[in-house]
Write a structure and sequence with these properties.
Protein name: HD/PDEase domain-containing protein
Number of helices: 10
Structural class: mainly alpha
Organism: Lysinibacillus sphaericus OT4b.31
Domain HD/PDEase: 19-130
Number of strands: 0
Pfam family, one: HD
InterPro entries: HD/PDEase_dom, HD_domain
Length: 207
């Protein structure tokens, strides 16, 4: 078993404890997105990108307050400390954090972040949004709720907004936050699909 397949099997058990919005299928889709972007970014370190994708949600703040498991996986990797730190940096720069994300400082971080954000939009993004909302007991929509346009990371994570409001607070902004050319290209159709979905939803609920 090669290094990447070995790591996949190790992390699979972690993600199988999460709800369907952040399970191992999510990781597989992000991995697929990252490969598509990697084909257009030949200067990127493919190994760093692949490992960062596999580990990027192990310590997701929605599910754990500890980075212990993530650090354990990274520390066991047979590579230089410099490369391990690069992987840590890529992971740290993925999260949206209510618009308070860290700057993606390398092409590898940009690829991982774009690949993850692509899975947050389009048909899969819609499915994931309602899967997470259902797991958290959130309303499908709330006609009286105002989408927040500016918030701290704590405010973003603490308020239990409806699933539809999440589109306006995050998902509809992601197309314009893509950083790679391939990511931008892939995001366009997915963004348009979300807009069509929201329009149809408004039609069906009488708005």
């Amino acid at each position: 078993m090669n290094k990447m397949n070995d790591l996949k099997e190790k992390v699979r058990g972690i993600y199988e404890q999460f709800d369907a919005s952040h399970d191992f299928q999510h990781i597989e889709r992000v991995y697929h997105n990252a490969l598509a972007i990697l084909h257009t970014e030949p200067e990127a370190d493919e190994e760093v990108v692949k490992i960062a994708v596999l580990l990027h949600d192990v310590s997701d703040k929605k599910y754990t307050d500890s980075k212990e498991q993530e650090e354990k996986f990274i520390s066991e990797l047979p590579m230089s400390e410099e490369k391990k730190q690069h992987i840590r940096d890529c992971i740290a720069q993925v999260s949206f954090n209510g618009g308070n994300e860290l700057e993606a400082t390398s092409i590898e971080a940009k690829i991982v972040r774009d690949a993850d954000r692509l899975d947050a939009i389009g048909a899969v993004g819609i499915a994931r949004t309602f899967a997470y909302g259902g797991a958290k007991g959130r309303k499908l929509y709330d006609e009286a709720e105002e989408a927040r346009t500016a918030m701290t990371e704590q405010e973003y994570r603490s308020k239990n907004t409806s699933s539809v409001t999440h589109f306006y607070e995050k998902l509809l902004s992601l197309k314009d936050l893509m950083t790679t050319d391939k990511g931008k290209q892939m995001a366009k159709e997915r963004h348009q699909f979300m807009e069509s979905f929201l329009q149809q939803l408004q039609n069906e609920i009488g708005k």
